[in-house]
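Hi there,

I know you've been waiting on this one. I reran it after we fixed the sequence typo, so this is the corrected version. Both the input and the resulting structure follow.
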Amino acid sequence: QVQLVESGGGLVQSGGSLRLSCAASGSIFELYTMGWYRQAPGKQREVVASITSGGSTNYADFVKGRFTISRDNAKRTVYLQMNSLKPEDTAIYYCNFLPSLSRYWGQGTQVTVSS
């Protein structure tokens, strides 16, 4: 049974940085593409970034050049380094497989960027 647990969110000023982590239990993590998603109040959940099992990455246009996704398969962890944060980045951030699987949505981690 795979579980995904996000951490690392918080309150930060505009222009600041945060590093999110997603720790996975289970033995299949390293085989699959993983994604970071976010959901802002009143908006639909959207893909922020993804990384394949081999380390190829893809980013939404609104975070390109500011966010970096990485993974450590030995630690079964996916990271999201977020720099130059903007108030519009405020959201709950989740990790999941890509495409997402409904049964693996966790609680997420809240990121709040103040102006």
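Quick highlight: Residues 38 and 93 are 4 Å apart (CA to CA).

Best,
R. S.
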